[in-house]
Amino acid sequence: MENILIGWCIAEERSSSIFFRPEQYTLFREKIDFNSKEGVSKCPAVHKVEKNLFIVRSPYTINLRANKDINNKIVIRPVYPFTEIKEEILSSIIKIEPPDFWVSDNKPLIQIKMPYLFFSDKNVWINQLETSPIRANKNWSLIQGRFNIFSWQRPLSFAFQWIDINFDLKIKRGDPLFQVLFDTDEKTNNFILKKVSLHDDLSKRIRECEGVTSLIRNTNQLMQNPREEGIKLIK
Q1: Which pLDDT score is estimated for 219?
Q2: Is there a contact between 57 and 175 (Cβ–Cβ < 8 Å)?
Q3: pLDDT tens digits for 209-221?
Q4: Which of 6, 20, 93, 148 is deepest in the core (most CB within 10 A)?
Q5: Is the pLDDT at 107 greater than 60, yes or no?
Q6: How far apart are CA 94 and CA 233, in angstroms?
Q7: Quick one: 64 exposed, middle or buried, by C-beta within 10 A (0-12, 13-18, 19+)?
Q8: Are 198 and 90 a contacting pair, CB within 8 Å?
């Protein structure tokens, strides 16, 4: 068994202090009675996932409302004062994807800026996963994804579908937005997160990976290419 170090940082220094530290998932370890000799809390498979699963929380409080105009087009606007982001910078934080990109005509696809960057100096995959429906009014579903954080360094994209536009979309600061699960070819590995400053080599790697998907097709092959030898990102 090997403990593998995962570096993380916020890919933009400006306003980075508002972002929460990723938290290790502890649902069963904290809320299940371990005096019991049976049950899901004793399952080694459950324990293994919890060790390698981390929660990322929202730094923002946002309330969006959808209405249809006279042409039956969906119009999305923030609701104030429940949205804390000032209206003049809201478009730099929240992006409503064009309807042609939506999976369903009545389920808008939205991206919210969440510039978390995870990286490793060993071959590690990150899986960005849906959170459990802890809140009764959770009205969105994550677009999940997976990529290699040794060969590919880019901020995570928090993209999701708005499930029911008849109800406001509400996200509060501190709400769990998504989970990240790390894995390697060796399934017994454990992962330790370390916060790393945004140093020059890391910034260079971000620039090298930025915008590639809009320039060429089949970027999966490119993502498998190892980075330049000798570069260590966790410092």
Answers
A1: 56
A2: yes
A3: 776 665 555 555 5
A4: 6
A5: yes
A6: 29
A7: buried
A8: no
Tens of pLDDT, residue by residue over 221-230, are 555 555 565 5
| Structure-block tokens of residue 221 | 């092959």
Tokens of 43: 């399952």
CA separation for the pair 19, 10 (Å, rounded): 8
Q: What phi and psi values does residue 2 have, to the nearest 5 degrees?
A: -125, 140
Residue 37, phi then psi, degrees to nearest 5: -90, -10
pLDDT digits (tens, 9 = 90+) for 4-25: 999 999 998 888 999 999 998 7
* Span 87-113, average pLDDT: 93
Integer Cα distance of 224 and 149 in angstroms: 10
* Alpha carbon separation from 182 to 38, 52, 53, 105 (Å, rounded): 27, 6, 7, 33
Q: Which residues pair with 129 in a beta bridge?
A: 179
pTM across the whole model: 0.84
CA distance 72 to 216: 35
Q: Which residues contact 196 (CB under 8 A, 6 or more apart)?
A: 7, 8, 9, 119, 202, 233, 234, 235
